Amino acid sequence: MLAHLLPFIAPFRARVIGSIIFSFILAGIGAAQVGLVQPLFDRGLSPESTREEVLWLAGKLLALGILNFPARFFHFYWIRTAMEEATCSLRTSVFSKMQRLPTSFYTRSKQGQMISHIINDTRIQAEALKAFVDLVREPLKAIAYLSMAFWADWQLTLVIFVIAPFLAAIFQVSGKKVHRNQADVQREQGDFTHAVAEGIGAHKITKAFNLQKFVTQRFTYFQDRFYQAQKKTMFVEEFAHPLVEVIGACAFSAVIVFAHHRIQSGATSIGDFVSFVAALALFMDPIRKFSQANVKLSQAKAAHERVMELMNYEEEADKGSLEPTKFEKSIEVKDLTFSYGEGEVLSHFSMHVNKGEKVALVGLSGSGKSTLINLLLGLYPVDHGTILLDEKPIADIKLNSLRGLFGLVSQDIFLFNDTIRGNLTLGKDFTEEQISHALKVSYAAEFVDKLPQGLETIVGDRGTRLSGGQQQRLTIARAFLQDTDVLLFDEATSALDNESEKVVQKALESIASQKTVVAVAHRLSTIQDYDRIYVLSQGRLVEQGNHSELMAKAGEYAKLYDLSVKS
Prior knowledge:
single chain, alpha/beta, ABC transporter transmembrane region fold, Rossmann fold, 2 domains, 19 helices, 65% helix
C-alpha cells in the first residue's frame, strides 16, 4: 500500500523525512524530561539542595520545553500537510482514471460509490502516511520511556515485558477485525452518498409527486446501514483502547506492590521510584496511540483495496493511430449489429452519409437511433460490422480525433454550474466576436443580453436557473463555437414545449446550414428537407429515402409522420 502511495508522497518527501527525524528528537526530549524527575525529587526538593542546583534543574526543564515547541510543531505540521497534499494528488489520479474509463463503467456503477471513491477512500488511504509516521514515532517514544524506566529501576521494568505479548495480541486481532469491517463501512458510505445525491437531484420529482416522506425514508435507510457498519468498527476500536489501559493498570498495580517492597528494603529511592512511575505513565500514551495508528492503517488498507480495484479497471480502448483533423468524404455504416448485453439493439444496419448531406434517423423509442449516435462517437466498441469515416474504420482513429470531428446537441442537456461564458468556451480561448456570433446564430443572444450579468451569469446546477429552451440554445451555441465538421442532433427538442421547440429548431437549422448532419428526430416535420431519412424498427432498417419518396410508399415512415403531425 505504501508503495502505491510513494509516487504521491515523492514531491513532499523532504517534509516526510523531516517529520520522521523530529520523531527521534521528540522521543529524546521525552526521555530527557523523565530523566529530570529523579534528581528533582532526590536533590531539587530536598532540604539539603542549593539554590544553584534548583535553578540548574529548572533551567534544564525550561530548555527542554522550549526545544519541544519547534520539534513538535514541524513534526506534526509537515506530516499533516504532506498527507493532505498526497490526498489531493491521489484524488486527481483517481478522477483522471475515471475520465478514461469506458461508458459501460458508468452505466453499471452508482454515482455515490464513484463520489465516495474520490472523496472518502482516497482520504482514508492517504491517512496511511500519517499512521506510518505514528507507527515510527510512538515506538521510539515508548522505547525512550522504557529505557528511562529501566535506568531508574531495571527490576521493576521487567514487569512491563510480562504484558507485552498481551498488547501484541490486542493489536493484531483488532487490526484484522477493523480491516474486515472497513470494507463494509466504505461500501455502505458509497451507497449512502448515492442516496444523498439522488435525493438532492430528484428534488423536482419529489415535490411534484409528494415524495418527501419516501425520499427521507430512503435517506434514513441508507444512513442507518452506514451507521451499523461504522458501529462494528467503533466497537472494535473502543474495546481495544480501554483493554490496553486495563492491562497497563494491572501491570502498574503489580509494580506498586513490588516497589513498596524495594523501597522498604532500601534497594531504591523515592526519586528513582517517582522517575520510574513517570516513565511508566508516559509509556502508556505511545502504546495507546500506537493502537490507534494500527487501526488507521487497517482502515487505510481496506480503502487501498477499493481504490486499486478502480485503478486496475480496464480503460476505454483507444487502439487507433490515425489523427484526422477534417472530415473529407463520407460516413459509412456497414452491416452493423450491436448489443448492450441483452438482445440486439441494432441488427445488420447500414447507412451512407456524404459530406454536406443531412441525414435523419427516425423510429419508435427503443429502435436504436441514439445507440447509433453513441457508436459514431466511439462511446462503445462495435460488436459486428463496420463504421467507416472517410473510408477508414473508426477503430483505427484515435478517440480524441474522432470525437473532435463531431459536435453533439443532445436531449440530455448538461451545463456546468458556471457562467454562461464558461459553459460556452469550455476552457478554450474564443474572441468576444466569436462568442457573440455563436449566441446570435443559436438565438440565445435575445435572452443573454437581457440578463443583468450577461455572459457572467451563473446558470446553476445543470443550468437550473434557465428555462429548458434557454439551456438548449446555449448547448447549440457551444456546438457552433466548437466548429466541428459533423453535427449530431440527438432528439435535441424532444423535452421542449412547442414555443421553445420552434426557436431551438430555428437555431439548429441556422448552425447546420453548412455542415454535415446526422439527426435523431421525433418531430418529422423538421426533417422534410433532409437528403435522406433512415427508418428503424426494433433495431432494423425498414425504409430509407427522402420525405417525398417515403410518403409515397405509405409505409412505416408515413405512419410515423401522421402520428407526429397529429401530436
